[in-house]
Amino acid sequence: NGLGVWTVRHPQIPVVTILLLVRCGSADDPPGQHGLAGLTADMLDEGSGDRSAIEMHEAMARFGAVIGTHLGSDAAIVGFTVLGRFIDRAMPLLADVVVRPALREADFARVRQLRQHRLKQLLDVPGAIADRAFFTLLYGDHPYGHTPIGTEAALASLTVDDVRTFHARAIRPSGATLIAVGDCTHDEIWRLADSAFAGWQ
Q1: Whole-angstrom Cα distance, residue 5 to residue 135?
Q2: pLDDT tens, 3-44?
Q3: Which of 43, 86, 108, 194 could pair covalently with 63 via S-S, beta carbons 3.0-4.6 A apart?
Q4: Highest-confidence segment of 66-70, 102-106, 138-142
Q5: How far is CA 59 from the centre of its chain?
Q6: Which residues, in sequence order, are CB contacts of 85 under 8 Å at separation 6+?
């Protein structure tokens, strides 16, 4: 399906860190929809398929893993660290989070509200205000000219359908690389990824 896989083996440490890097970041926000990529990234771990967000995190917690997401200007990263013996159980959950997120209306409303509150809080943080002004002055209307969190007006106008459309367009295997470091082999990770991400088009 085009997904690239990189591995670095370190058998002395009995854990594996898995990162899925997708070449899509805040610079890919459509005009007038600043913050859409960040909102989409925040929605990934809010449940998958029939699982709620709580059920998804409980499933990861059973073997000591926590899913984390990060979004920059050019890429989104989703990943976790887990004991090597649990990697076969964790990989399918990572695939569910990235490929098959639930993207439910109720979760969207809650996550968007959290981001709106965070944006208001940042108005009282001098460093955040300076960063925003700096990027705007440096890049102007270029896609790098806005921060991943977006703007109040843009966030207020976004809908869950915008998130679903962006996810379908931007989160694709041809722009993704799976990185594994720790107590694993390339063949093992390749086999697990091939199974977990099968059918991702």
Answers
A1: 33
A2: 778 777 766 778 999 999 999 999 999 999 999 999 999 999
A3: 86
A4: 102-106
A5: 18
A6: 14
Q: Which two tokens mark 69? A: 């997401």
The pair phi, psi for residue 8, each rounded to 5°, is: -130, 120
Cα gap 98→173, rounded to integer Å = 10
Residue 89 near residue 103, CB atoms below 8 Å: no
Residue 101 DSSP symbol: B
65 and 86 Cβ atoms separated by less than 8 Å: yes
E strands, the chain, in order: 4-9, 15-22, 68-71, 76-83, 176-182
Q: What is the pLDDT of residue 11?
A: 67
What are 8's two structure tokens?
A: 């670095």
Residue of 136, 144, 132 whose CA lies nearest to 26: 144
Q: Report the chain's mean pLDDT, rounded to a whole number.
A: 91
Distance CA 82, CA 169 (A): 30
Both tokens assigned to 131? 């960063």
Nearest to 104 by CA among 46, 166, 167, 54: 46
